[in-house]
Design the sequence.
């Protein structure tokens, strides 16, 4: 039972079928094919706006290229201190921004609050010695599994406008956030001031397909060149686009995300009912973060449940992980089976009652 991440599974059937369909015959290369044209138009329909779309193969490429469009080499990009862009991408954003820096701010649940960002920006010196802030990047879903509400994004959008910052959203789990909020892609992004989005699809059903969705035209100007220099102009582009065709057809992407979120809730509810287990953060999308006794952590691992430990640095105020406890992350994907969720809960429940009886 593998709950290590949502990218430990393969691609979903409709995505694979779309790929097989697109595989036949010859088509123009480098994204000049009809499938790519259709998919780009579909993004504009989905976002209810003429967006510029660049398809890439990884989330790191999407983030690094998106931020390189938004931040000049002398600029600063504000993000959470545990954001994927600052913590998990081996400096790719800074590398592609060509000298610019990421400034990581604290915030419970890996969320940034508008007031904190505003205070930080007001506190920066206007001196030539200070890199000027040029962009804000948030992760939706956050690294602690939380979903920014529309009002929270709107408030950050206002801060960006006040300070002249471009607003980037790392949407590696965009679909999970979307169905959690029950809003439209437009409401989740540009209607709240988001200018550029890393639209994740790999974790939710694709093989390796992510998109940069650009709302603000000036950020799209050099994107093709940046992508080429990063080796992200895919020669058999139709095979990247076909993944999106399968992903979007008949609301497949939303069904996948709903499945993952529902099972994550089931897992969280089941674990939270076990004495000695509590949640580090509430389960708002497809990730579950229980704080468990170390003996239970060991029992779960011994039973073959796979997951990662997680840092407790952004736990809510007053919450902490005790000396005999562990904070762990279990991620549910579109392919997770409900029976496996029940199995994990059962393993945890019986392990805890056995340990209590000893
Ligand atoms: C918040 C976040 N952003 C981006 C990514 C994409 O990273 P990758 O380059 O592994 O596709 C991930 C994947 O773990 C993520 O969790």
Sequence:
């Amino acid at each position: 039972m593998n709950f290590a991440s949502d990218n430990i599974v393969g691609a979903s059937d409709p995505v694979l079928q779309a790929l097989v369909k697109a595989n036949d015959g010859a088509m123009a290369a480098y994204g000049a094919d009809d499938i790519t044209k259709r998919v780009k138009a579909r993004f504009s329909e989905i976002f209810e706006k003429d967006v510029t779309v660049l398809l890439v193969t990884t989330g790191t490429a999407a983030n690094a290229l998106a931020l390189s469009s938004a931040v000049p080499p002398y600029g600063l990009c504000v993000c959470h201190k545990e954001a994927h862009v600052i913590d998990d991408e081996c400096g790719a954003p800074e590398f592609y921004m060509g000298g610019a820096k990421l400034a990581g701010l604290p915030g419970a649940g890996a969320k940034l609050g508008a007031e904190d960002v505003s205070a930080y920006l007001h506190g920066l010196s206007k001196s030539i010695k200070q890199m000027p802030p040029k962009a804000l990047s948030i992760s939706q879903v956050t690294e602690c599994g939380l979903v920014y509400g529309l009002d929270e994004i709107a408030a950050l959008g206002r801060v960006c406008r006040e300070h002249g910052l471009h607003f980037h959203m790392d949407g590696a789990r965009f679909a999970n956030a979307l169905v959690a909020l029950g809003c439209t892609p437009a409401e989740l992004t540009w209607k709240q001031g988001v200018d550029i989005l890393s639209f994740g699809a790999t974790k939710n059903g694709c093989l390796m397909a992510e998109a940069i969705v650009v709302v603000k035209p000036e950020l799209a100007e050099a994107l093709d060149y940046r992508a080429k220099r990063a080796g992200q102009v895919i020669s058999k582009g139709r095979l990247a686009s076909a993944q999106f065709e399968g992903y979007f057809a008949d609301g497949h992407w939303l069904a996948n995300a709903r499945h993952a979120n529902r099972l994550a809730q089931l897992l969280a509810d089941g674990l939270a009912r076990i004495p000695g287990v509590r949640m580090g953060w509430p389960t708002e999308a497809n990730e579950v973060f229980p704080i468990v006794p170390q003996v239970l952590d060991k029992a779960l691992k011994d039973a073959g449940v796979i997951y990662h430990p997680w840092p407790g640095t952004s736990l809510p105020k007053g919450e902490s992980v005790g000396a005999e406890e562990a904070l762990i992350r279990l991620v549910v994907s579109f392919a997770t089976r409900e029976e496996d969720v029940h199995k994990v809960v059962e393993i945890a429940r019986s392990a805890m009652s056995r340990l209590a009886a000893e």
